Amino acid sequence: MRTPLIAMVVGTRPEAIKMAPLCQAMATDSRLQFSLISTGQHRSQLDQVFERFNLTPDIDLDLMNKTSNLNELSGRVLQEMDGILENVSPDMLLVQGDTTTAFAAGLAAFQKGIPVGHVEAGLRSGDIMNPYPEEANRRFISLFASLNFAPTEHARQKLLAENVRDDIIVVTGNTVVDALNTIAGRITGLPESVKRLVTLGRRLILVTAHRRESWGKPMEHICRAIDTIVTTFPATEVVFPVHKNPAVRDVVFPILAGHERIHLIEPLDYFDFISTMKYADLVLSDSGGVQEEAPTFETPVLIMRENTERPEVFDTGKAALVGTDTEEIIRQATRHLAWDGGHSAWKTGNPFGDGKASERIVKAILAWHEGKKPYLTPQESFSPNTTITTK
Prior knowledge:
This is UDP-N-acetylglucosamine 2-epimerase (non-hydrolyzing). Its EC number is 5.1.3.14. The chain is α/β, with parallel strands linked by helices. Helix content is 41%, strand content 16%. It is built from 14 helices and 15 strands.
C-alpha cells in the first residue's frame, strides 16, 4: 500500500505548539509522510515555536499583514491553499483547533475532495459569539471533517450531540500536553527575563489577556481588578506579558504602568511563558490554552471569560470562571491568596491529556488509511487518570 501523505497547516502560535509534537511523531514513523504548511497568521510568534521545536515549514505562505481583517485573511487562505493542495495532493489535511487558518484551509480541502482531519475537535462554548470567531469556526469544521480527534470524552459527546458519526470520532487527549512533556524536564526555574523583575519570596501572579471579547471595557475591568489585588496583597507581584495589539495595550498601560509590583513586559516565548506558569502561585487568563496547560503544573487559574469550552478544567479543583467583572476577579483572587494551603483536597493529573495524543492520532490516521475500524479501540483511547491529594 502506498505511504500516505498527510499535510498539516498552522497559522498561529497555539496551532504550532499543538501540532509540533504531531510533526515530531510523524517524522519518526516510516509508515507515513507529512508536509507542514504555515499561513503566517501570527508571523513572529510562529517563528519562535518553529525554532523551539526545531521545525521548518515545507511551505510558508506569509499571508498576514497589519491591515488584514478576518474576511481578507479567509479569502487569502482559501485562494492560496487551493493551489497548494493541488500541487501537494495529500491524502488528508490536518487542521488544528478553531482559527481562521483552520477553518479556511479545511474548507479549501473539502471543496477539493480532500479528507480533513480535525485535531482538537468537539470543543463548544454554546455561544456562537463567544469566543468569536472561534466557536463558529470549529462548528463549521465539524460539518466537513472526515476524522475528528476529540481531546476528551466531553468533546466527543458534544460532537455526537451534533449528529457527527461516532465511527469518525476518536478520543486522543490534547496534543498540548505532549508539547508540555517535551519541555518540562528542561524547566529549572523562572526565566531570567522574569527572575530579574520579581522579588524572591513574594507570591507571583501571571496574567494574560488578549481575546477580542476582552477588548474595551472588559479589559479595563480586568486591569482595575489587578490593581486592587496587588494593592490589597503587598506580598504579591504581577507579571503581565502584554499582547502587541493596540486594542490591548491602549487600555493596559494607562491603568497599570508605573506600579512597582506590576511588571508589564513584552510577550514571552513559549518556553519562558510555560516556565513562568510553572512557578506562578496564580494565573489570571482569558486564554483557552492556559486552561489546558496549568493543570500539568497544578497551578490555579482564574478564567477571565464568560464561558469555557473546556469544563474539564474544573475537575482539577484549581480553576474558577470569573468573567471580566472586577469584583468577581478580586473575590476569587482573594479567596486563593488568603488560603493557607492546608485544608483542601485537590486532584492531580491533567484532565486534558497524558502526553500520548500524537501517538494516538498517528495510529488512527494509519487505521483510517488502511480502512480498519475502529480507528482506536476503547482501550487505546485517552481516559484521564486523576488522583486526590491534600495540598
